[in-house]
Design brief:
Keywords: Apoptosis, Cell adhesion, Cell junction, Cell membrane, Cytoplasm, Membrane, Transmembrane, Transmembrane helix. The protein is of the alpha+beta class. The chain is built from five helices and five strands, in the order αββββααβαα.
Length: 196
């Protein structure tokens, strides 16, 4: 039976794996075309972080407009992308930090601080995008912010959770490193006659 709690050195890879999951979700958000989509048929609108597309009934093709032509589009893409790049750096640092036998806990706390910076940048991008998109782009039909936008928020939520764990991990340094001896509870038969 394998017991793996917070204070388990074998489980040190859980935090880097969660960061890796956040990186994967960030890649999906950056590459996905589902930031905004038509809610129901006819599907005439779709958008990514980079462009907005409308279905043309005459040519039966998507007509796309780059969001990089707008200042808010560049700001949303830049803030989310900067957060993503710092996230990839934090993931690499976490793998390095947990690979060495002598874990540097101040280094781990620094990764946690950087993850809060990642969350701030990603939240800025995720808030700028819908607010300004609705103001600047004329939408057709009923639309919703869809799956790729959701992956962006999911990545941000995982980053915030990991940031708290990375910042708090040094408080359990002895438990993680296994420096605490186990406590055994023993009662003698004289003290507990009901056990006989």
């Amino acid at each position: 039976m394998v017991v793996c709690g917070l204070a388990c050195w074998r489980c040190r890879w859980l935090l880097p794996l969660l960061l890796g999951l956040a990186v994967i979700m960030g890649i999906i958000a950056l590459a996905g075309r589902g930031w905004l989509e038509s809610e129901s048929e006819p599907y005439v609108q779709q958008a990514s972080l980079w462009e907005s597309c409308t279905w043309d009934q005459e040519t039966l093709n998507w007509i796309c407009e780059s969001l990089m032509n707008y200042g808010w589009g560049r700001a949303a893409a830049a803030t989310y992308l900067v957060g993503f790049v710092i996230l990839v750096i934090c993931f690499a640092l976490a793998v390095i930090a947990f690979s060495i036998e002598i874990l540097r806990f101040n280094f781990v706390r620094g990764i946690g601080g950087l993850l809060f910076v990642v969350a701030a940048f990603q939240i800025m991008g995720l808030v700028i995008y819908p607010v300004k998109f609705m103001e600047a782009i004329q939408l057709t039909g009923d639309n919703m912010f869809s799956w790729a936008y959701g992956f962006g928020w999911a990545s941000t939520v995982v980053v915030i959770g990991c940031a708290f764990f990375f910042c708090c991990l040094p408080n359990w340094e002895d438990e993680v490193l296994g420096n605490i001896k186990p406590t055994y509870y023993y009662s003698s038969p004289e003290r507990a006659p009901y056990l006989n």
